[in-house]
Amino acid sequence: MKVSRYLIPTLKENPSDAVVTSHRLMMRAGLIRKESAGMYSYLPMGLKVLRKIINIVKEEMDRAGALECLMPELTNADLWKESGRWYTMGPEMFRIEDRNGLEYALGPTHEEAFTHLVRTVVSSYRDLPLNLYQINTKFRDEIRPRFGVIRSKEFIMKDAYSFDVDEKGLDESYNAMAKAYRRIFERCGLETIPVQADSGNMGGSASEEFMVASEIGEEVLLLCDSCDYRANSEKAEYRSITAESEPQESLREVHTPDIKTIDDLVNFFNCQPDKFFKSIIYVYDGKPVMVVVPGSRDVNEHKLKNYLGALELELASEEIVIKVTGAPLGFAGPVGLKDLRIICDVSIRSLCNGVTGANKKDYHFAGVNPGRDFEIKEEADITIARSGDLCPKCNGKMYEKKGIEVGHIFKLGYKYTKAMNVTVLDEKGEAITPIMGCYGIGINRTMAAIVEQCSDDKGIIWPKEVTPFHVHLVGIAKNDEEIRQIEEIYDMLIDSGIDVLYDDRKVSPGFKFADADLIGIPLRITVGKNYFAKGEVELKERSKAEALSIAKNNIVAEIKKYYSA
RNA sequence: CGGGGCGUGGCUCAGUCCGGCUAGAGCGCGUGGUUUGGGACCAUGAGAUCGGAGGUUCGAAUCCUCUCGCCCCGACCA
Asked: Considering the domain A252-380, what is its CATH architecture?
């Protein structure tokens, strides 16, 4: 491909609305253009990369035995009503009506669609296992699109759904995907960190997220420094430290006018935040519940939701807080509350002589001791782990890292097959419900993550398997005869089956080199004065500083060597 | 949704506070010429309803009101 006939609108300056590396470089290298917030066009070279990623995903999915399908983007509301998600999905689902008033959703995910498909085509255990996937556009009305292509309203996703007769089968399907994912990301040139993740309220037993470590990541990971424990903060457990015991003080009421927050309390009582029984009222599935955690800790709503087995969980409004505690916000506590379900974090038991709200405006209790002053009826790990916490596996220290989630696999269970009434007959002729797994990869986001991870201050450095072209041929010619000689090399490369981008523009060499660095094709061949004088071309790897002088006859072999290594 | 910021040739920005003449610069683009191994140079040229609507004024990119779009932070831990 000749640059003069291609479309690579590179930008010398950073676009003003691109703030992260991948977004900036993808814009500047002429791969994408923004159409609107959270919506991007892919230009020819950007599309080429996207397709390479897609092909890797396809090859590995196929190798793992999954079958590609293509589902409609427009999904009938009835399907969503059947699973209940029409009502629980909320505003992130784009909903539309046709001219007759029939309701549809622009698919944000396709569990229902695939479950429905399977139910119409599968009837015997002999038809299973089945793992169906597609690579298709998803629509989500994101609360806030950001970071270019990393969080957008419209994106391409590979989503796969496995159906097995039993849990053992699901284990196999799941493990096959876990393996395929590792191969996919490795081939994409990405270093991913597989972490344990929360599988939501699907009743799923296993879930793994594939994260790319990055400062701009929107997920927080906890990694152990001495073993292989790594988990999403939504899921991460930690070993709580038992507080030192001290002689029990007596319970006393303290006047705390307008002292509501933990910070206020720390100042007022002049002690550590962990001396406070932070008491928070939530509403789960319409019912109020109080959770009690150490003052310095945050409630992990995912853990709490899982513990409660709740479909919905939200902080209680002030109204409800007043109703169940008798006091305005800021003065709730477990002491003396009889009719409210109270869940204590596992670390509460060992806190002594603490402080908590007195359920009375402007009053707190001090000298509070669990067991004596309030009963611990329910105990669970419901707080967010953080840097410095002890690893639940080995007692090592954990540290935090931010990551971009590029893939997620998890055991779904029976949620959809049950809700949508999918059955097959087993060997005995009895109806059984298949069990599902679900496996996603964000394609655009994977591309952004690659750029995020594989770039320097000059531009992108594409990994071998996803580079838009194999070689960037830079010609520096002073006359027609020299152009002819460069084109000889260009033709030779094409004839050897090498995908070459030939910069034939009439611009200065520096301009071409700068563009080549920006675009990031891993190999660059420069044909200029050394070739016309000595028959030598320059071969340079984008990732290295020094170049190699080689003869024309060795070019093809060198390129093939690079790509087969 | 709450807070903050920004909309001026294709791109990056100045001008706006304190209203005043044909709205500027750099980059990019067209033409002619000189250049050619790390974003060349000279000459010349095209290109802007100053996001949109309404208002104030003799006069609005600039002031006021409304509106649209975009970016960033946050989104309830008492």
From this structure: Alpha-Beta Complex (3.90)
